[in-house]
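A brief tutorial aside. Many learners find it easier to grasp structure tokens once they have seen a single protein encoded end to end. The record that follows does exactly this for peroxidase. Read the sequence first, then the structure, and try to relate runs of similar tokens to stretches of the chain.
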Amino acid sequence: LSVNYYQQSCPNVRSIVSQQVNQIIAADSTMVPALVRLHFHDCFVRGCDGSVLLNSTANNTAEKAAIPNLTLRGFAQVDQIKAALEAQCPGVVSCADILAMAAQYAIAKVGGYTWSVTLGRRDGNVSIAAETFVNLPSPFVNATTNLNIFQSKGLTVKDLAVLSG
């Protein structure tokens, strides 16, 4: 992963994503937490690989269709960002990187903490609904269980409070 991963292949990637996120939030400010949550749910299952965006098939129920993800929003907005990127840099930017940048720009847009998102994630091609139940925190278990899930991902009690808020 690198801050400059797309410097040669898609030099305007950050400005394109930033512009799209600004448009999305201008149209609906509730998309800020939705974009953050979408990235969070992606990263907790199989790592930050975009697998939460994959659709179910005849032989597999994907993460997107799992009970913990049924209230996720932002899929159309990610498609909007992807379309803008495809118009400039076809076949270059991963959906996993789009999720990471969209979450960061959404937080920055409302005056939150900013950071340099490293890029170069590869999109996954496996998405299994059952994996959400063991990898995502749940409102139906105690705080210790959810804290253990966060700690297994290298996160803290503060991270649990912020992301599960």
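Self-check: The mean pLDDT is 95. If you spotted this yourself, you are ready for the next section.
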